[in-house]
Amino acid sequence: MNRKSAHVMVVTPHPDDAEFGVAGTVARWVRDGKDVVYVVCTNGDKGSNNSEIDPKELAKIREKEQLAAAALLGVKDVVFLRYPDQGLEDTPEFRKKIVRLIRTYRPQTVVTADPYRRYIWHRDHRITGQVTLDAIFPYARDYLSYPDLTEEGLRPHKVREILFWASEDINFRSDITKTFDLKLAALQCHESQVGQFPSGELEKRLRERHSMLAEGQDFELAEAFHREEIWQ
Hints:
Rossmann fold; seven-stranded mixed sheet; 8 helices; globular
């Protein structure tokens, strides 16, 4: 069996969501010597207002954009599950894929979208967060869950920490003051998603948001999460 490992796993619904949600923190982790792996759940084939573009071509474009952004940040591996955009479901198959990846890479920290954000929230984000949380606890942890994975050599693994981006219940802020420029550059790799912004507008909006998220802290710019430690 091919042995892999990573300190952090980021499970993102679409290409570009991780860059909006956690890229500044990812860049800081990588600078600190941590290995980070991305798991991209959908192919993003509906993420465009251009009615003329072929969805299959859009999926190819977005995969290339995600690889470019990840390379810029120093992400170790990028795993594409390639479910259709707007097509995620909370299924045993999807959950097992996430469990397999957790048991393969054995991260201490997993980062994903908050499944409990109220009212207006993309369904793919909600389902990605919920399935990831279920995969972490209890399925990746328990010996009697997926014995076939254990037989393959993918032994149970206990994730110690989970961070949810876009949470309405923030209890953890990460200093991205020194990595903001890398976050911005990584987002700009997603030309199909942010190319419509006038010059300088994306940076202005991001800086305002991350400055607001850092209010009350002793640093200038922050990404904010709901953080849970898992001790069971």
